[in-house]
C-alpha cells in the first residue's frame, strides 16, 4: 500500500467556542476558544481534520489565531496543494522550510495524518507504532480571587477522578495558596505552573514552594532564560519543567546543555505538529528527561490527536488533556472527550482518532470560511 496521498482541496474554518468559565493565568484571561479547523479532502474522497489552536491575544505564545490563519492561507495550504503526492511522514520537513507559525503547521500536518489514517482504515497511534492504552489525565486550574475558590475547584476536580492537579501561580499568588491546598490535600499529586512569570531573583519563592512535595514547577522563568533556569534548578529538589522554553528541537538541545530542567511538557501545537513532537520525545528521553503531553488547551480535534501521542509509553506523567466539559460549553467532535472515575481517558477504536467531527457543530460556531482547491 502506498505511503503517499494527494490532497485536492482544503477548507479553513475559523470557529469560536465559549469556555465554561473564564480561564486566568499569570499573563491574561481568556473567555472563548478562537481556533482554526483545517479540513482536507484527498483525490480518493477521504477527509481529514486538523486544528491550529493558539490562544487569542498571544496568551501562551507569539502566535495568534490571526497569525495562524495568515500562515495557513498564504504558505501552508499552497505548499500542500502544490506538492502533488504527499507522504505524511515526511511533510513536516517541507513545513520546516517555511517561516515559523508552529500552530498552523501542527494544524495542517494533523489534517494530513488524519486523512491518511482514514484512507488506510488505521488508528493514528498505530501509524506511529504506539500501543493503545488508557491515558491518565490531570487537571490545570487557573488563578482565582480567593483561596476558598481555589480549594473548592481542587475538591471538585479530585472528586471527578483527575490523577494530578496543576495550579497556576503568579507573584503574590504562589506560596500561600499552595500551602492551603497541600494542607487540605496532603497526598494529592500536585504541581504548579508559573507561565514564565518570575525571575531568578525570586529564588526565595521557589525555595518556599520546594517544601510542598510538588511533582514539578513548570516554566518558572522566561522562555529564553535557560541558563538562569539551570542555576535555579541547582537550588531546588523539586524538578523544573519546560513548557514555553521547549518550543523546538533546537530549544530542547539548549535545555539539555544547561541542565535547565528535568521534565519536558511537549505540546503538539507549540512544537509544530505530531512528527516534531515525536522527535522531541525521543531526544528528551535519550537525555534522561521525563516527559508529558500538554495542551493549550485545544478543541476536540487537536486534543484527540494529542491523546494518540499521549498513549506512548515514554510519557510518565498524566496529560493536561481533560474532559471536553471541563473547558467548553460544547464540542466539535463526537463523542466528547470524557474521563472515568479512575482519571483515565479511553480513546475510541476506529480509524484516525476514533472520534468523529460533528459538522453541524463546526458550522454553528464558524465565524469565517475559506476554500482552496487545485
Structure report:
With 374 residues, the chain is an alpha/beta fold. Helices cover 36% and strands 22% of the residues. The chain contains 14 helices and 16 strands. The chain has helices at residues 65-82, 91-96, 102-120, 124-127, 147-160, 175-184, 203-209, 226-234, 249-257, 268-271, 274-286, 300-310, 324-327, 359-365, and strands spanning 5-25, 28-42, 47-52, 85-86, 135-136, 139-141, 165-168, 190-193, 217-218, 240-242, 263-266, 290-293, 333-334, 344-345, 356-357, 366-373. The chain has a seven-stranded parallel sheet with strand order 6-7-8-9-10-11-12.
Shape: globular
Order of the strands making up the biggest sheet: 6-7-8-9-10-11-12
Mean pLDDT: 95
The number of strands is 16
| Total count of domains | 2
Q: Based on the coordinates given, report the CATH architecture of the largest domain.
A: Alpha-Beta Barrel
Helix content: 25-40%
Distance between the termini: 25 Å
Task: Give the strand content.
Answer: 15-25%
**Order of SSEs:** EEEHEHHHEEHEHEHEHEHEHHEHHEEEHE
Classified in CATH, the superfamily of the largest domain is Enolase-like C-terminal domain
Query: What is the CA-based Rg, rounded?
Result: 20 Å
As residue ranges, the low-confidence spans are: none
**Might you state the CATH topology name of the largest domain?**
TIM Barrel
The CATH C-level name of the largest domain is Alpha Beta
